[in-house]
Amino acid sequence: MFLILLVIFCGFWIGAIPVGYIIGKLFYGIDIRTKGSGNIGAANAFRTMGKPGAIAVLLLDALKGFFPVMAVKMQGLDPVVVAFAAAAAVLGHCFSPFLGGKGGKGVATSAGAIIGMSWFAGAICAGGWIVGAAITAFSSVGSILLNVVAPIALWYTTHERAYVAYGVFAALLIIYTHRENVGRLRAGRENAIGLFRPWRRGNEGN
Length: 206
Fold this sequence. Notes:
The chain is mostly helical. It has one domain. 72% of the residues lie in helices and 0% in strands. The protein has helices at 2-15, 19-28, 42-74, 79-94, 107-117, 119-136, 139-158, 161-177, 179-187.
């Protein structure tokens, strides 16, 4: 139990590091929370800091999920402990104490954790994002689909129940963090991205 609590503590604080906010302040002189959608994730980083900033935020946010998972796996610990590390990192990202309990939507950090559990499952989930975003032109749909696919992908590639449980947890959490996007989708007010459908341009509210 002590080990699990230690893993949760470390994973949470690693996940809580507000990468988007830090990069915005250090390299662009902006508070990303006051720009665009106000989100600290890669989508808002793209519209406020451009491609270099967005790529840096995406990779580092993913690393926040990947590193705790791999650190636990390399110690040969039970998959249940790995799942706790992943969940803690994503929760830290979404509810960062450094930002007053606010944070990002958890997509990149969750994807990094999934890759740490199984790179093949991570590839399947990335495919889910591409399919969702390509068909609908909404990044939010791709982000939700990425995590909805996660439990199936993790079961197919690992057969570890603890990983599948994490996948279910992540899917529910990501749906929750995208609740405003879902509301806009239902109301027909969600902005499309031009990545797959250039004729439907707009700043994704993600």
